[in-house]
Request: fold
Amino acid sequence: MRKLSILVSILIFAVPVADAPLRSKEPVAPHPLVAQADPFIGVDKGGNIVPGAGVPFGFVSLSPDTTKHGTSGYRSTEEIIGFSHTHVSGTGGASKYGNFLTTPIVGKLRTTDLGSPKAEETASPGYYSVTLTRHDVSAELTATRLAGMHRYTFPPTKQAHILIDVSSVVRPGRRERPWSQKPLDCTVRVVAPNRIEGTGRFTGGWNPAPYTLHFAAEFDRPFTAAGTWKGEKFQQGATSAQGERVGAFATFDTRRDQVVRLKVGVSFVSIAKARANLEGEILDWDFDAVRRQAEAVWEQALGKLVVEGGTEAQRKIFYTALYHSHFMPHDLTGENVWWESDEPHYEDFYCLWDTFRTLHPLLTLIQPERQRDMVRSLIDTYVHTGWMPDARIAGANGMTQGGSNSDVLIADALAKGLTGIDYQKAYEAMVKNAEVDSPRPLHEGREVAEYKRLGYLSLRHARSASRTMEYAYNDFCLAQVAKALGHMEEYRKYLERSKNWMNLWDPEIRSVRPRYADGRWLEPFSRTHGYPDKQYSYWEAPFYEGNGWQYSTYVPHDVRALILLLGGERGFLQWLDQFFDQGIYNQGNEPDILAPYLYIHAGRPDRTAERVRHLLATEYGTGRDGLPGNDDAGTMSSWYVWGAIGLYPNAGQPYYYIGSPIFRRTRIDLGGGKTFIIEASETSETNKYVQSARLNGQPLSRAWLLHAEIARGGRLELQMGAKPSTWGNYMAHNHIPGPENLPTWP
Reply:
């Protein structure tokens, strides 16, 4: 990937381009698909999207930070205090990063009261711009994988300053908490005549383990004055400072030349490596060329899915959702300071509990090389830390919300034929998850001794019921990998263990229900009672962020058994209809987001079409509150992508449900010259029901496709209509493959 980036850089920078200031914020000939993505969708109301500049899976996320904010550091109604270089996007929980805040100001130097109202705020993939009206400064940002570039247009003045806060982090929006981020020790050095560099050590945030990050900053011309600050005290002419809160400033005379350009490289390794990243990724001072490079990379990524039809709003939401699906985890290959390895390295799996369901299966389909490298990074983490993480941020494993869901990524990759992965080593890691009690189950692995003995986790364990549900599916994924590798005895063992979820099934209330170690049910209990509550915190509750009914829908491998427990198709459909009609389903959280597609297992794809179409239309929008909640590193956005094109993955298994596409035509670029086309020429708001289907010209009566049928390329034609049809109805030969007869990749 690095070689390609350098080649693209060389090709772009070979063309001389004028670097004039863009105070008017006029676009620089955006690419067609880039122009359809709106980085401001989902920034507010808990979406926590980062609106600033970055490239797909790049670590540098150069974005505005505001006085009040969510985990992204940004809220659109608040004043901007500056632009930091690292962020997580769409996450809940505690924030992380927000390092090396850069703030342009005019007049008297200060380190507090930096907020400025804004005007003319615009953004597109790879680019952000705004006018800070307090100082009449125009700020423009763009980025590469490990470096950011700024272009500031100041008013004519002798006192144009740029502050770099080496100790900055995204702090809590309301009040300090025990896990809040904070700097530990920071150093900064002014390197005359136009460079500043430094190092920050930080702790706290999601996965509160400390981390160290370095930067190297270079200005396009010598500063007229410079110095450092510590606390609120400035030291004019000082060349270094160290402490808990330190930074540096550079002053410029902009009476003749109002534009000041700045580029900043970052690294986990060293200041020297940060400087090398800067020099290797941004070759000169042509801001517009760097922006075009970022846009070209985004255009290529978005071009993996080309849609036709739908409304303008639907296309805008779709391409924004696809854009969000390329933020995290961050590609830190070459930046692995934690151990020596030649493997690809990714950080900020934030968290697999969210992303395994929709995001990673999407990458498996449209970015298989990228997904392969992410899986290799997870396996390499096991080799060097002893565990595959369920979450990993800034060099530390945790926090584990449910099971060992890296297992699902391994099964998904193997079932879908990703090559270049050491599946035997991955299997070793999965077996450890299944058999060895983790000494730190909140951070990695599972608690399995009681689970193996009783067939469930009892209420003596935190998140006992929800973890039992997830452990059962993790065991199923392990069984499938064991089978593919020829370990048939282990396959049968873990397949049997994957039925453990039924040990929590209470037929009286038709829901899974927490149990004590002696077999007693939790009393009192309601299947609609959500956790956390007044008695239980997030981490101690029997169900993590959900209720019994929601988690009862999470049996991705055993829907047939759930149907039988509910008395057959009729009882199951009634149960599922009540689940939706009574408002129990929650699109804003992960445990039940597979539920709309479960109707297909009972032969009612028309009900799936109705539910999914309603959710696409009501839970997503084009506004700054256009997401149903935290985007969870692209999970909710990729759910929209799948629903809009009319497919949906059952993560860890080799098939996709066929839904109800909102676009007349979708072209999926599979790489290697292969494409898969989904055509639904008559689809509309009313024509949401599939009447018949053809795969590569042959009639298709089932409402699901194998991955192999898509991966070889071809065409799915869906005849759409305004009324439900008999297509996909329950017939024995249309059964989705069950636990015992899933096909494996040859």
